[in-house]
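Weekly structure sync, notes
Attendees: PL (lead), two postdocs, one rotation student
Agenda item 3: pending single-chain targets
PL asked that the sequence for the first pending target be pasted directly into the notes so everyone works from the same version. It is reproduced below exactly as submitted, 437 residues in total.
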Amino acid sequence: MFVENPESFSNYTAILQEELVPAMGCTEPIAIAYAAAKAKELLGEEPLHITVDCSGNIIKNVKGVTVPNSGGQKGIKVAATLGITGGQADKKLEVISAADDSARARCRELVNAGFCEVNFAEDVPNLYIAAKVRGSAHTAEVVIAEHHTNIVRMARDGVTVFEQANAAAYPENAALSSADRSKMTLRGLLDYAARVDLSEVSELLERQIRYNRAISQEGLDNGWGARIGKTMLESWGSDVKTRAIAWAAAGSDARMSGCALPVVINSGSGNQGITVTLPVLVYAEEFQVSKQKLYRALLVSNLVSIYIKHFIGPLSAFCGAVSAACGAGAAITYMAGGDEKRIACTITNTLGNVGGIVCDGAKPSCAAKIASSVHAAILAYQMSMRDQQFQPGEGIVEEDVEETIRNIGYIGKVGMKPTDHEILNVMIDKVDVNACV
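Predicted structure, written out during the meeting:
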């Protein structure tokens, strides 16, 4: 039997501690609000104006979602301005959780008055936000890159006061660097999930269960978004497969339409956090597994998702619901008694089926993409338990699941980069699609 060394176990635990954090609403507008709140804090006075420079992927993922706790307002200007009027920078991805009616009203007033200017930043990382504020006496700038709370530069009155190269002076702003995702392997993470002392991770997992189940229930109870979860249960019945898909979709229904409940994220995404959690909870109840078995299954789900997404990067044209659904399918296979071979088969079957779903920004239809991805993952699990697998040489599928994962990583990070660019052009009306017909 393959056995990981203690240092490797510590690395997996550190990865989980970095990844499984609470976030309120879609993480891209929240990251903008965080940058704005941090810039205001650095400015030291009330801002008179803010300019936000964003990468295309940030623009894409903020355009169609309601900013949580904003009273139904949408867009980059709202996210940045609410970060100014009601943000608390120390809360990071829950930065606007305490925004009140006064902050929301002031946000609406400032946005209408032209307080915020937005620019498209080119030749920057896929995840990039620069928030520049001007007051009566000072200016300040905060730049975030690569990760949603990863501040790489801060400047006041044009003088740099923090750069990531000198992060020791500001450890709270340092990049996510204590864990090494490049050392992950499927076999290693499965060994970790099977043998780690659960006391090291139970608090993280309980919070994930509690938060993500709550927003899913909210999506089922009320008319959020496109009502994908509710529609499925009303139309397809309530067997275990439908419940697993619908519960995941319902969480996204609520989250994408401005629900203020927090989500424990995965790979920087609340939708991915929901997807790795809810199907596993549904099948754990169906299989009547112990709490310990559920915890270990959630470790499988979270780590498989993080592992696959590591090769793709934080934002791309590749829909992250697919990598998260791979994690959920792997965990369901694990709870059903599947060994490493069958878990690998589940991942391969999922990627061979829905690996081409594109991301055209965060919005209510993300719930439907989650539904499609989880459906594919459940089919993949059912195939794997019957020893049925897509074969090497069929499309992107390789003999070794690790190579298949790397193939999808290359496609998502490199191959789909031009697609990502053109999706953005369509979304911001920079192309005449009729001229291409």
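Discussion points:
- DSSP finds 16 helices and eight strands in the chain.
- The longest strand covers residues 128-134.
Action: rotation student to compare against the earlier draft before next sync.
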